[in-house]
Amino acid sequence: MRKNYVEEYNSFYFIGVGGVSMSALARLLRSMGKRVGGCDREEGRFTRLLVSEGIEVKITDYCEQVDDFEAVVYTDAVGEGDGTLLRAKRADKPTIPRGELLSDISKLFRRTIAVSGSHGKSTCTAMLAHIFGAAELPFGCHIGADDLSFRNSALFGREYFITEACEYRQNFLRLRPQIGIVLNTQPDHLDCYKTVDNLKKAYYEFCLNSACVIKLYGELPKADGVTFGFDDRADYHAAGVRGTRGAYSFRLFEGKECLGEINLKIVGKHNVLNALAAVAAARLCGMSFETIRAGLENFCGLARRFERIGTINGIETVADYAHHPDEIKAALKTARQITDGRIFVVFQPHTYSRTKTLFNRFVDVLSNADKLLIYKTYAAREYFDDAGSALTLSRALKRSVYADGIEGICSFLSAATEGDLLLVLGAGDIYDVAVTLVDR
Questions:
Q1: Which of 130, 176, 228, 413 has the greatest number of CB atoms lying within 10 Å of its CB?
Q2: Distance CA 261, CA 252 (A)
Q3: Is pTM beyond 0.85 here?
Q4: Beta bridge partner(s), residue 321
Q5: Which CATH number is correct for 307-439, 3.40.50.10800, 3.90.190.20, 3.40.50.1000, 3.40.50.300?
Q6: Predicted confidence (pLDDT) at residue 426 exceeds the cutoff of 70
Q7: Mean pLDDT value across the chain
Q8: What is the SS3 assignment for 418?
Q9: Which secondary structure element, helix H or strand E, spans residue 259, and what is its range?
Q10: Separation between Cα atoms, residue 118 and residue 128, nearest integer Å
Q11: pLDDT band at 79 (very low <50, low <70, confident <90, very high)
Q12: DSSP secondary structure code for residue 378 in this structure
């Protein structure tokens, strides 16, 4: 059995360090006293965060600086032909996939809580971080988004490690958590799983790898575990759910006992389910209801999770990470609750393979927008595929328009009037485009 990379090496270089998870891991290692550096092809919010914290980041396709570090970490988005990665391999440095480093970091803590699911991972993980913060327990967290308090990672001790568990390329199967959470198992990442059945099998294996499982009521029926949901047969369920301008309150039940009422600050009914999953994990760790409520009610949300980013020509603008049909549906539903005007949607597809695989579902859900613009695809790790391109999707949506630049969005918004809402959706660089428009 090999040694733990984090215990064995003192310096780490990250290729693709600007990714939300990669930058989070870099920050964690820095907090553990390691020397950290990295490179990325583009500057972004997380490269700027790292630089502000004193971590050296190069914006380049090829960086000789890798020579100065003992071990090299790379993201799934980095191809095997990447020049910096090849340079590290020629120098016989250990090259560590992102998921493997996350696993090694988790082993440095006494207990790991891993949050899996097609949607809601970041929010549930952040909710747990706020609960553990309210309890003043020693913990570390790895969040796949930008929390308004903790950013994308934090380290306050080595007792509990709270982390997202991403299913892409079965990365979550590297973890051996004491508590494994399954929020949902909707089809996604079928470019690597090929079939829904293969995806389900991976979730079952994740459950087997977890000492204790928390799962949505009705999901993965062959896996034993603690359940949560709106159904009153779930171990933890919500009753009296009510929304006010998109934010929800509910009475929390543990079995037949009502523990009390929780008032969430964040919008979207789906976040009640994320909160219930976090409650179940916190209760398994011995938390009181009062502590749990304080943590959840202090949670103000994540960047790009129905984030109000300002106005464009007087039109309120909301950005959301939604890049899957189910997430888009939830975002549109929430938008209807906070505006009486028309909803102008700008959607950027994330990867050709996802668009191609779920094409009809995208067409169905996006048809509910009052006004719709499809923005050029954020390809991430993929090569062009016309069948899954943004233009092909736009042509299938008869009332949509297509744009590949910021001026196209400006033209689209010229028809918006006071009282309308702009909803910017996608996991790619469309957020930065929207922020630029707001800043103008």
A1: 228
A2: 6
A3: yes
A4: none
A5: 3.90.190.20
A6: yes
A7: 94
A8: coil
A9: strand 257-267
A10: 18
A11: confident
A12: B
